[in-house]
From TrEMBL:
Keywords: Signal, Transferase. This is Arylsulfotransferase (ASST). InterPro entries: Arylsulfate_ST (IPR053143), PQQ_rpt_dom (IPR002372), WD40/YVTN_repeat-like_dom_sf (IPR015943). The keyword S-adenosyl-L-methionine does not apply. It comes from Urbifossiella limnaea.
C-alpha cells in the first residue's frame, strides 16, 4: 500500500510539474535600448540602442548582433565592446537610401544581411567583405519596404518577406524564385498603419518548418498562417481568436520542437502581451508583457534557452 501511495504521489507531482507554464528569458529592443530580461522579469543586461530594430540575434559565443541604425548591423560583446560592424551602402542602380531589416549569423561565420533599396541579400565575412550576393525580384521597389525578415534555410535557399509586395518568396542561391505565397485581404478593406485598426498585407516574418511548411507572421494582416508547399493554408490564427488577445502587427516567430509557436504582437496597445506562446489547439501557455522595460514598439525579440527552436 505504501509503495502504491508513493507511486500515486510521484505521478501527481509529475503531472503538476508537466502542467507548469513555461518561463523564458527574452532579448529584445524597444524604448531606446536592447535588454535581456530574465525569467523573473528583471533586466540582466542592457545597452543603449535608439534605433527601432527589426531583427536581433544572441550568438553562441554570448555576443549580440544588433540593429543599431537604418543600414547598420553591429556585433557587441557582453561587456559592450563592438567587435564587428557592417553598414550597407547604395549599390547597383540604387542612387537612394538603403535600409536593413534582417540579418543572420551563418554557420560558416559570415553574416547574411538583407538590403532594402539595393534589393539584394549579401553575405559578409569577418573583414566586412561581401563574399556572396543574391538579387531579389521586387514589384514595388521601396527602400523601407522591400524586405522585412529574411532567413537562410538549411538548404542554402533564402526565405524572404517582401513587405511592400505582400508576399513571402523562397529564392535559390542564384536568385531564382522557387516558391512564393501572397497574402490576401480576404475581402476586407485595406487600412494603413500597424495597430489593431489597420489592415493590409504588409508581411513581417516567416519560418520554414521541418515538414516543409511555412509559418508566416502577417504583419498588419493580423494573422499567423501555416501554408504547405502547394500554398494551402493548413493552420491559422486570426486577429481575435484568442481570449483576451488582439493581434496587431504580427512580427517575431519562434517555432518550438513541441509544435507550439511564440508570436510577437507589436503595436497592440498597453494591455496586450508583447509576445505569447500558443499551442496548435490555440491555447495560450505563456505571455510576456513588460511595460517597464519595453513599450508598444517591440518588433525584434529573441526568446532564449529553447533547444531546437526555429526562428
Amino acid at each position: 500500500m505504501r509503495l502504491i501511495l508513493s507511486g500515486v504521489i510521484a505521478l501527481s507531482l509529475a503531472a503538476v510539474a508537466a502542467a507548469d507554464p513555461p518561463v523564458y528569458r527574452v532579448l529584445a529592443q524597444d524604448k531606446g535600448h536592447v535588454a535581456l530580461v530574465g525569467k523573473d522579469g528583471k533586466v540582466e543586461w542592457e545597452v543603449e540602442c535608439k534605433y527601432n530594430s527589426h531583427d536581433i540575434q544572441l550568438l553562441p559565443n554570448g555576443n549580440v548582433l544588433l540593429h543599431t541604425g537604418p543600414a547598420t548591423v553591429t556585433e557587441m560583446t557582453p561587456d559592450k565592446k563592438v567587435v564587428w560592424r557592417y553598414e550597407a551602402k547604395p549599390a547597383g542602380d540604387n542612387k537612394g537610401r538603403v535600409e536593413v531589416h534582417a540579418f543572420q549569423r551563418l554557420a560558416d561565420g559570415t553574416t547574411m544581411v538583407a538590403e532594402s533599396g539595393n534589393r539584394r541579400i549579401v553575405e559578409v565575412d569577418a573583414a566586412g567583405k561581401i563574399v556572396r550576393q543574391v538579387s531579389l525580384s521586387v514589384k514595388r521597389p521601396d527602400a523601407h519596404r522591400d524586405t522585412r525578415l529574411v532567413r537562410k534555410l538549411p538548404t542554402g535557399n533564402y526565405l524572404v518577406c517582401q513587405e511592400g509586395d505582400g508576399l513571402v518568396r523562397e529564392y535559390d542561391p542564384a536568385g531564382k524564385t522557387v516558391w512564393e505565397y501572397a497574402l490576401e485581404l480576404g475581402g476586407k478593406k485595406e487600412a494603413p498603419g500597424h495597430g489593431p485598426e489597420s489592415y493590409g498585407t504588409s508581411v513581417f516574418g516567416a519560418v520554414r518548418l521541418a515538414n516543409g511548411n511555412t509559418v508566416i507572421a502577417g504583419g498588419n494582416n493580423h494573422r499567423v498562417l501555416e501554408v504547405d508547399r502547394a500554398g494551402r493554408v493548413v493552420w491559422s490564427l486570426d486577429q481575435k481568436e484568442l481570449p483576451g488577445i488582439t493581434l496587431a502587427w504580427v512580427t517575431t516567430l519562434h517555432a518550438l520542437p513541441n509544435g507550439n509557436l511564440i508570436v510577437g504582437n507589436c503595436h497592440a496597445g498597453p494591455d496586450q502581451p508583447q509576445l505569447f506562446e500558443v499551442t496548435r489547439d490555440k491555447k495560450v501557455v505563456w505571455t510576456f508583457r513588460n511595460r517597464q522595460v519595453f513599450g508598444n514598439d517591440l518588433a525584434a525579440a529573441q526568446v532564449l534557452d529553447i533547444p531546437g527552436v526555429i526562428r
